[in-house]
Amino acid sequence: MEKLLKFSIGPLSVPDDKSLFFIAGPCLIESREMAMEVAAELHACCSAMAVPCIFKGSFRKANRSSGSSFTGIGDVAALEILAEVRERFSMPVLTDVHERQDIALAARYVDVLQIPAFLCRQTDLLVAAGESGLAVNIKKGQFMAPEDMALAADKVAQTGNSRIMLTERGTSFGYHNLVVDFRGIARMARAGYPVVYDATHSLQLPSAANGVSGGEREFMLPMARAAVAAGVQAIFCEVHPDPDNASSDAATQIALRDFPGLFLQLQKLHACLQSL
């Protein structure tokens, strides 16, 4: 196992020596009520087992298959909801940024900036995220070799900010399909940063459902188990009270009622591996 850089995000230690940590929440902040419902369940579940959790939610979805797709409730309104989650549940919060000008705004409300997969080579965006001083989660592009993610991380680290995570989210395999090569987790870990597995977006079928992305949610648990066995430090998953009617990523978000079962199985597996 590679020696990984350790850092803190609010009260969380990353990576955690005792357990997986989770990055979980809805794909998109659709309303205050929905965000608070999800946050309350995640907080209760993770607190019961003293497992670290970062609440995630996009304040705006800039990358949509169709120009008619819903993009958000308004930037400041969504960011204020994220800040309220942090305050109310004492959980760090994460959101995506797509342009340099997003960073100054989002940094006022969140603890972690996430670089979307399609933007993981955008030097100006990575540098600006690093200069914010916040932790930065870089998603591996569907077109990127895992070892090349070290170059993306270096762009952030050169700003003096080494609070970096790298996330596996699948690789393009022909049209409308993704695969996960679990060798990539070990290869990304060689860069020295914690590696996260995105159990949601790895199951997407991009733009495969009449102008929106489809997905194969039924494979989430076996794929997440494989990622834990391969040595990831964290699991990223999108959680929604009613996934089929979500405003984005309806085919891959996990139902809120199913999160505790997924959470418990992955924690048990991680504990078994720690005993080897």
UniProtKB/TrEMBL annotation:
Compartment list: Cytoplasm
Catalytic activity: D-arabinose 5-phosphate + phosphoenolpyruvate + H2O = 3-deoxy-alpha-D-manno-2-octulosonate-8-phosphate + phosphate
NCBIfam families, A to Z: KDO8P_synth (TIGR01362), PRK05198.1 (NF003543)
Keywords, alphabetical: Cytoplasm, Transferase
Taxonomic path: Bacteria, Pseudomonadati, Chlorobiota, Chlorobiia, Chlorobiales
Domain DAHP synthetase I/KDSA positions: 16-270
GO-annotated cellular components: cytoplasm
Organism from which the protein derives: Prosthecochloris aestuarii (strain DSM 271 / SK 413)
Pfam families attached to this UniProt entry: DAHP_synth_1
InterPro entries (UniProt xref): Aldolase_TIM, DAHP1/KDSA, KDO8P_synthase
EC assignment: 2.5.1.55
Protein name in UniProt: 3-deoxy-8-phosphooctulonate synthase
MF terms (GO), sorted A to Z: 3-deoxy-8-phosphooctulonate synthase activity
Family the entry assigns: Belongs to the KdsA family.
Main location per the UniProt record: cytoplasm
